[in-house]
Design a protein that fits this description.
The protein has 6 helices and no strands. The protein has one domain: PTS-regulatory domain, PRD (Orthogonal Bundle), CATH 1.10.1790. The radius of gyration is 17 Å and the shape is globular. By secondary structure, the chain is mostly helical.
Length: 142
């Protein structure tokens, strides 16, 4: 974690501002892709933002992930196809805003994190919906 914090505490406020804007844009891509609202103060979204911060450090140090065996990448692409499409959109944001072309490994790793954060949000929404139905009329809840 110290490496991540060091990467963002260099005193360069313009870079900090830019990175904050890029994170906001990436979160908006996920929200639009999945039709969900991400609570930026939740633990799950905080964990995702931490992943993005590590990604930005790897980009700035030219040390992107690039050694995963191809069968693992292929499995992620097949299993998490929606998250891969979203990760491709986020990679396009990184290319435009940071002039960084993400490796296939980084995109796949990003897809895993996207899948996790969106699954967590959708699970929470289902729980709230079930609780509201139960309150409203005692209907059957899963």
């Amino acid at each position: 974690m110290h490496l991540v914090n060091a990467g963002f505490t260099t005193g360069d406020l313009s870079r900090t501002y830019k990175i904050t804007g890029v994170i906001q844009q990436m979160l908006a891509v996920i929200e639009q892709s999945y039709g969900v609202k991400l609570d930026q103060h939740s633990i799950n979204v905080g964990r995702f933002i931490t992943h993005l911060r590590y990604l930005f450090v790897r980009i700035s140090q030219n040390k992107q992930l690039d050694r995963e065996p191809q069968p693992i990448i292929d499995s992620i692409k097949q299993t998490y196809s929606d998250a891969m499409r979203c990760a491709d959109k986020i990679a396009a944001v990184a290319a435009l805003r940071l002039d960084a072309h993400l490796t296939e490994d980084e995109i796949a790793y990003l897809a895993l994190h996207i899948s996790r954060v969106t699954t967590d949000v959708m699970d929470e929404e289902h729980k709230k919906s079930d609780a509201n139905r139960a309150e409203a009329g005692g209907t059957n809840v899963r």
